[in-house]
TrEMBL record:
GO terms for molecular function: DNA binding. This is ActR/PrrA/RegA family redox response regulator transcription factor. InterPro entries: ActR_PrrA_rreg (IPR047772), Bact_response_regulator (IPR050595), CheY-like_superfamily (IPR011006), Sig_transdc_resp-reg_receiver (IPR001789). Transmembrane segments: none annotated. It comes from Tianweitania sediminis. GO terms for biological process: phosphorelay signal transduction system. Residues 17-131 form the Response regulatory domain. Keywords: DNA-binding, Phosphoprotein, Transcription, Transcription regulation, Two-component regulatory system.
Amino acid sequence: MTPEDFAADPLLGDDASLLLVDDDKPFLTRLARAMEGRGFAVVSAESVEEAVGAVKHHAPAYAVVDLRLADGNGLDVVSAIRDKRPDARIIILTGYGNIATAVTAVKLGAIDYLSKPADADDIYAALTRTGDDRVAPPENPMSADRVRWEHIQRVYEMCERNVSETARRLNMHRRTLQRILAKRAPR
């Protein structure tokens, strides 16, 4: 499908092309179906390589990109989209949310950063949010475990994802750090 196949939604503008990138096939299929129902012309990709190929063929106006993919980092897809289409509205979607990667994603050009599980309504709202709309602050503050985890993630990003250097800077055993990085973020 091409963007011309859809009637122009006033929130989407003239080009409603949407690239969805996630390696969770059932989630990707459900999200693609839901976003098509909201007026997007959806192209799906399950890997960084597939997504970058799709961007080379046609840079989308909108994108929802998973941060961690089987063959790499979703931030590489964000960069590829930004190079071809600076005005694209890109959202990072991940189950491994942390402040450091959110900041990196925004610096690369993402407009929002959503943690999984996010439903199609949340994603649509984030894609179509204007500058005047503000996201409500969280009702529950971060736990001490979450603050610690965020700090570790920030140092890890500062060290360009080098586990050995991060462990040295945090005065932590490398294997302990690897175990922490492999787990999901605490609530």
